[in-house]
Specification:
Blueprint: H1 3-20, H2 33-44, H3 52-57, E1 60-62, E2 69-80, E3 86-96, E4 100-102, H4 106-115, E5 118-119, H5 121-136, E6 140-149, H6 150-153, E7 164-169, H7 171-175, H8 177-187
Parallel strand pairs: 2-5
Antiparallel strand pairs: 1-4, 2-3, 3-6, 6-7
The structure holds zinc ion.
């Protein structure tokens, strides 16, 4: 479906939803809301049409470095697939190269690629980790995500400010607990 058709289809459904909850869809403040919601929905799910491996491959350089490389405090925003409400927080990435390093700005970019989809935090963590592992053939990758979920905070249990932490690791990080601890120490605030 092309983008114009997608926008029109989402717009129609949003208008119907507003009427179902008892809103006057023609009042001034809501007139352009269905179109805005449709645009924002497409933007927040734009990661489906992006190729994270291609982004990493576009800035992959041969380099003899075998020490841990860390990019921490990467802000991310995603949508939980159960409620289509935001979850957001910080991503922290470490990898140990195996002949190749990657341009550092590409790591936040692939976080965006995977977070701009309907997600669960667990899978988001895995997808970022696997993509770096496979594309760089790294000696090890570790990813930690810390996030707040609006589906928990605005509804349901209403646990304000609870932080969900997920971890995924491969290779040397899986074999060596002290390496994991070294990374966790670096990201501890
Ligand atoms: Zn949820």
């Amino acid at each position: 479906m092309d983008e114009q058709k997608q926008l029109e289809a989402i717009e129609k459904i949003v208008r119907e939803n507003l009427a179902i909850i008892g809103e006057d869809v023609n009042r001034e403040g809501l007139q352009k809301t269905p179109r805005r919601v449709a645009r924002s929905m497409l933007a927040l799910t734009s990661g489906y049409s992006m190729d994270a491996a291609a982004i990493l491959n576009s800035a992959k350089f041969a380099e003899n470095c075998d020490k841990m490389i860390v990019v921490k405090d990467i802000e991310f925003y995603s949508l939980c697939e159960h409620h289509i409400l935001p979850f957001f927080g910080k991503a922290h990435i470490a990898y140990i190269p195996n002949g190749y390093i990657v341009g550092l700005s590409k790591l936040p970019r692939i976080v965006n690629v995977f977070s701009r989809r309907l997600q669960v935090q667990e899978r988001l963590t895995q997808e970022i980790c696997q993509c770096i592992q496979e594309t760089l053939n790294a000696q090890g990758v570790m990813v930690v995500l810390e996030a707040q979920h609006l589906c928990m905070q605005m509804r349901g249990v209403e646990k304000q400010g609870a932080i969900t932490v997920t971890r995924e690791y491969t290779g040397l990080f899986a074999q060596d607990a002290t390496l994991r601890q070294e990374f966790l120490n670096m990201i501890n605030h």
